[in-house]
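Why should sequence recovery work at all? Because a backbone constrains its sequence more than one might expect. Tight turns favour small or flexible residues, buried strands favour hydrophobic ones, and helices have their own preferences. The token representation captures these environments compactly. In the example below, the structure is given first.
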């Protein structure tokens, strides 16, 4: 049985990943999470399983992280803990640097100390275990696209927000540990995720929440910004596939080939709500859509070319946007109506 550390396991993707790993492996999962505002406290406190241990802690605490690796002898790490909301990184960038850069450094260094005797030489116990450190990153490290083209693994990094710059920095640190020390690490850069347990501040939950409360549904600028959407369990499956199969030092772009403008997402959700929970006054929910002042430096378009993970690791998303968004809206309807 592997001892798997998932950092940020009480967050949106981390909690879905833990559920996925418990259902699809026989490993023991350690969920390390600081429980910031972004964590799902219900998941952290009430999701129980005999192969799941919850540990409250901060990845920025160097001594604690070193001790934790020595105590539990993790042989696989999925690193998701991060500050993840671009708007917050514009308001308060410092915590993004602390968590996303310094926190990642602490984890890399603790893994290096646990697994390796010296650069490129594994400790005997870990040599046979084939340990892996998977750093979960974002397509936002590549910056913004115009109407044409896709991000590939060879696209040069050009982050434009404090969030994406902090993630790009952490990606570079990971690769430096691969090249300098031979740390068995890999990176995934994924597009926008959607699905259950995403924090209320993100676009899709905001649209559903505001629609149901009768408030204006805020859409930045002219709503034409394009994102490439992937259902969260498809991302989890990709992460598991990469951790199990990727060669050391590889990076994989993960995306759903679902490019959609923000305004079209909002309209689509409003149409679903019109059918499943029509407004009492008979008006369409889309009447609540309101354009608001654009985010400073708002990237225009992200689009992933996922051919490397499709060809090398035979990964394919299972969910279409139509089926995934329907499930997502149903999940939030239960949450907001309970
Ligand atoms: N959500 C997306 O669309 C998306 C897309 C691509 C990549 N990613 C990356 O995936 C990862 C997870 O994203 P998410 O959307 O689930 O984020 P999230 O904000 O929902 O969850 C982050 C979790 O990390 C925890 N955390 C924050 N700081 C911590 C610290 N110092 N120590 C320990 N735990 C801490 C939080 O409590 C929270 O539970 C992030 O690294 C993000 O950059 C997200």
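From this structural description, the recovered sequence reads:
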């Amino acid at each position: 049985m592997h001892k798997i550390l998932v950092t940020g396991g009480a967050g949106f993707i981390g909690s879905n990943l833990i559920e996925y790993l418990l259902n699809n492996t026989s490993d023991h999962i350690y969920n390390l999470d600081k429980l910031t505002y972004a964590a799902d406290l219900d998941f952290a406190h009430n999701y129980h399983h005999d192969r799941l241990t919850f540990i409250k802690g901060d990845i920025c605490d160097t001594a604690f992280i070193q001790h934790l690796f020595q105590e539990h002898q993790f042989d696989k790490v999925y690193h998701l803990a991060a500050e993840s909301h671009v708007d917050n990184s514009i308001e308060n960038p410092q915590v993004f640097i602390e968590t996303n850069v310094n926190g990642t450094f602490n984890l890399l260094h603790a893994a290096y100390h646990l697994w390796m005797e010296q650069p490129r030489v594994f400790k005997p116990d870990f040599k046979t275990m084939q340990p892996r450190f998977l750093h979960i990153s974002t397509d936002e490290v590549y910056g913004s696209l115009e109407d044409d083209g896709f991000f590939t693994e060879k696209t040069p990094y050009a982050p434009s927000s404090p969030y994406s710059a902090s993630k790009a920095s952490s990606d570079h640190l990971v690769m430096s540990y691969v090249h300098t020390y031979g740390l068995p690490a890999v990176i995934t850069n994924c597009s926008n995720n959607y699905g259950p347990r995403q924090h209320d501040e993100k676009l899709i939950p905001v649209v559903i929440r505001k629609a149901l409360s009768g408030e204006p549904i805020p859409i930045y600028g002219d709503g034409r910004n394009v994102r490439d959407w992937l259902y969260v369990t498809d991302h989890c499956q990709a992460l598991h596939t990469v951790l199990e199969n990727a060669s050391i030092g590889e990076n994989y772009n993960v995306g759903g080939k679902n490019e959609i403008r923000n305004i079209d997402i909002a309209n689509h959700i409003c149409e679903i709500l019109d059918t499943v929970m029509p407004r009492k006054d008979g008006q369409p929910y889309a009447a609540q859509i309101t354009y608001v002042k654009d985010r400073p430096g708002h990237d225009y378009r992200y689009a992933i070319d996922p051919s490397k993970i499709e060809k090398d690791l035979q990964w394919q998303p299972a969910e279409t946007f139509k089926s995934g968004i329907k499930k997502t809206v149903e999940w939030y309807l239960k949450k907001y109506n309970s």
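A few observations help interpret the result. Residues 7-8, 10-14, 33-36, 38-39, 58-60, 80-84, 99, 103, 136, 138, 167, 190, 192-193, 199 surround nicotinamide-adenine-dinucleotide (CB under 6 Å).
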